[in-house]
């Protein structure tokens, strides 16, 4: 097998995927240092869509989906196809036929920095797809690419086996070896935010950090307040 296709890599564990899937992408991005979120051009075909799983990375030339077909054949159940389509939206790289195969094989979903088509049918399938847009043009199937190698997707570095989680807000990628350490922080952040929301609903709407931040920014002078 050509070295352009890497079959063997360590995936984030199913147990960690299940734990991570309880959180919003925004929570995981925050605890990761506000890093790992893909560019907003890549979004869900429908806001209800959500996915979580280890990345199976795919690098393709714009407008060509040959290596995506190969990746579907190699993917394991639970994998997320993460495809660097170079942000090209002049033709769709995937549609109903390929998405049906992905769903049948147990692939957890698709994240693609490129276009798809048959969006209404994919929505009716209720299969999670996150793309940079749609286009009715079909792709070619002629150009080699790579599978399992590090890629850049939506401005974020993605390695095969990293955790990918996506929801209505977008997509976040966590390095595989950081996931276990970040999940407790995510749980704490959820609890802290719930407590703050409860305070706001009780009438405590002031942000205790705001005045100091405004002074640091030079908006307020020492001793001044809003």
UniProtKB/TrEMBL annotation:
Name the positions where Mg(2+) binds. 118
InterPro entries noted in UniProt: RraA/RraA-like (IPR005493), RraA/RraA-like_sf (IPR036704)
Which Gene3D superfamilies does the annotation name? Ribonuclease E inhibitor RraA/RraA-like
Task: Enumerate the UniProt keywords alphabetically.
Answer: Magnesium, Metal-binding
Question: From the UniProt record, which GO molecular function terms apply?
Answer: metal ion binding
Residues that coordinate or bind substrate: 95-98, 117
Name its co-factor(s). Answer: a divalent metal cation; Mg(2+)
- Supply the name of the protein: Putative 4-hydroxy-4-methyl-2-oxoglutarate aldolase
Organism expressing this protein natively: Ramlibacter tataouinensis (strain ATCC BAA-407 / DSM 14655 / LMG 21543 / TTB310)
């Amino acid at each position: 097998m050509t070295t352009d296709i890497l079959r063997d890599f360590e995936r984030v564990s199913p147990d960690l995927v299940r734990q991570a899937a309880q959180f919003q992408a925004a929570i995981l991005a925050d605890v990761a240092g506000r890093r790992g979120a893909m560019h907003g051009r890549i979004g869900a075909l429908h806001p209800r869509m959500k996915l979580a799983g280890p990345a199976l990375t795919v690098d393709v030339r714009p407008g060509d989906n040959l290596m995506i077909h190969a990746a579907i054949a190699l993917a394991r159940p639970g994998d997320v196809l993460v495809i660097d389509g170079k942000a090209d939206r002049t033709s769709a790289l995937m549609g109903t036929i390929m998405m049906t195969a992905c769903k049948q094989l147990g692939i957890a979903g698709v994240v693609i920095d490129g276009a798809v088509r048959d969006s209404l049918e994919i929505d009716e399938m209720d299969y999670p797809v996150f793309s940079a847009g749609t286009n009715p043009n079909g792709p070619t199937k002629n150009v080699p690419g790579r599978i399992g190698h590090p890629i850049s997707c939506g401005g974020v570095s993605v390695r095969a086996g990293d955790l990918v989680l996506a929801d209505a807000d977008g997509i976040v990628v966590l390095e595989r070896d950081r996931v276990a350490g970040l999940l407790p922080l995510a749980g704490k952040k959820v609890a802290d935010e719930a407590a703050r929301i409860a305070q706001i609903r009780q009438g405590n709407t002031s942000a205790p950090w705001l005045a100091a931040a405004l002074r640091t920014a030079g908006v307020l002078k020492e001793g001044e307040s809003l």
